[in-house]
Design goal:
By secondary structure, this protein is mostly helical. It contains 16 helices and eight strands. Helix content is about 40%, strand content about 10%. A hairpin with a 4-residue loop joins strand 5 and strand 6. Helix 7 crosses helix 8 and helix 7 crosses helix 10. The two termini are about 30 Å apart.
Length: about 400
């Protein structure tokens, strides 16, 4: 989510791309628009001993330094009372999910505050270069950490799955760097940038190597510390939690068939968007579960009467047809049914004058990221007459028909 700043501009932040091995993090290639740029050399004329004392009191495993850079971001976030109030409200739903995943990898609890500066805790957040979800994973990194991305599911948007992937990433980064602040910096700019900065500064202290890091990362760590501070001391800045739509008890079910979220919502007398909000990873609002690979659905707490209706919907004989899943990671596809006739899994689209990737993706009901992966596109530029490979999302003839409107 982009945040308007009256006197500050947006900055470009980064997230590492696909590691070849668990402990290797190549250069970053993302941006995050949630963090404003502050003056590179802010004047420290308002040193606040109260802030220093509070940071010391809430510090646990991750060092929470207090300096002019952290102070500047405290100034920024502490006046954004509505925004931080919204973060407090969302934290009541999301933080238990983050904490469980982080604990499973023995990652400091404080890392749960990162999605605030990464995505403003919006699972549908997408950066300019395609980093997606609460934890802003790039496509390659997500696949490297086991997140499924196909034409029905993008687990970068799944709060649970993405949190476990982020926890695994931090485990690997800490094993490599041995310092939590440096691991946070590497999450933004990549291992290579951090290691080069360490060599140039001949130091392992973030504040010593900071001047050798990309501008985005120089801001990233102070912004993180400021977010931890403001979220931990909201009463000191007259910030009140704003109620979130997610503040409710939930149930989890495993679905072994293909079914739409709308069908489930109707059975439970829910608004479809409410159910989609709890299950943001299903791109088409269709749960493509199977007996071999059941899919998880998060539901509001099910009453006894709703359970009976839900049971009938999930177990009726006239099930919705099973669908092929196009795996963008390997350009292939698999079908839960036996194939009776060999089919080409893709066809070609010829680019017309004036068309861009977004228009073509909308025409075939696919994602821009899929188009780029299938055709090995580094950028967004297209040339009239260029042929783009389109992988079949089900019936080939239906997939080749443009959308209406």
């Amino acid at each position: 989510m982009k945040i308007k700043v009256q006197f500050l501009s947006y900055c470009i932040l980064a997230l590492g791309t696909l590691p070849v091995a668990a402990q290797q993090f190549p250069e970053a290639n993302t941006d995050t628009a949630a963090i404003p740029v502050v003056s590179e050399v802010p004047r420290f004329i308002n040193y606040n001993f109260s802030y220093k004392t509070r940071l010391d009191s809430i510090q646990k495993t991750v060092p929470l330094a207090y300096n002019e850079f952290v102070q500047k971001y405290i100034d920024v976030y502490s006046v954004r009372k509505d925004m931080m109030g919204k973060m407090l409200g969302l934290s009541e739903y999301y933080f238990p999910i983050f904490e469980k995943a982080l604990q499973s990898y023995n990652i400091p609890n404080e890392i749960k505050y990162l999605p605030i500066i990464e995505s403003s805790m919006n699972p549908h957040a997408v950066s300019r270069v395609g980093a997606t979800g609460l934890w802003q994973f790039m496509f390659g990194t997500a696949k490297g950490y086991g997140l499924q991305i196909d034409n029905y599911v993008d687990e970068r948007k799944d709060p649970i799955q993405a949190s476990y992937a982020a926890a695994a990433y931090f485990r690997d980064a800490y094993e490599e760097l041995g310092d939590w602040v440096l691991a946070i910096a590497a999450y933004n700019c990549g291992m290579g940038s951090v290691k080069r900065a360490m060599q140039k500064a001949d130091s392992r202290d973030f504040w010593e190597i900071r001047r050798f890091l990309p501008t985005e990362t120089r801001n990233y760590v102070p912004a993180f510390i400021a977010a931890v501070y403001v979220m931990s001391c909201p009463d000191k800045h007259q910030i009140t939690s704003l109620k979130s739509a997610f503040l409710k008890n939930t149930d989890t079910i495993q679905v072994n068939r293909v079914i739409s979220l709308a069908t489930i919502a109707n059975a439970m007398n829910l608004e479809q968007e409410e159910l989609f909000g709890l299950n943001p990873s299903y791109k088409k609002k269709i749960v493509n579960g199977s007996v071999a690979i059941p899919k998880r659905i998060i539901l509001p707490k099910v009453s006894l009467s709703d359970f009976a209706a839900l049971y009938d919907v999930l177990n009726k004989d006239d099930q919705e047809p099973e669908m092929k899943v196009v795996l963008a990671s390997n350009y292939g596809y698999h079908s839960p049914k036996l194939k009776t006739k060999a089919k080409s899994p893709f066809f070609y689209h010829k680019v017309s004058s004036g068309q861009n990737l977004g228009m073509i993706a909308n025409k075939y009901h696919i994602e821009v990221q899929d188009l780029k992966v299938w055709n090995n596109l580094k950028g967004a530029s297209l040339v009239p007459g260029q042929k783009l490979k389109i992988y079949d999302a089900g019936d080939e003839k239906a997939a080749s028909k443009p959308s209406r409107g």
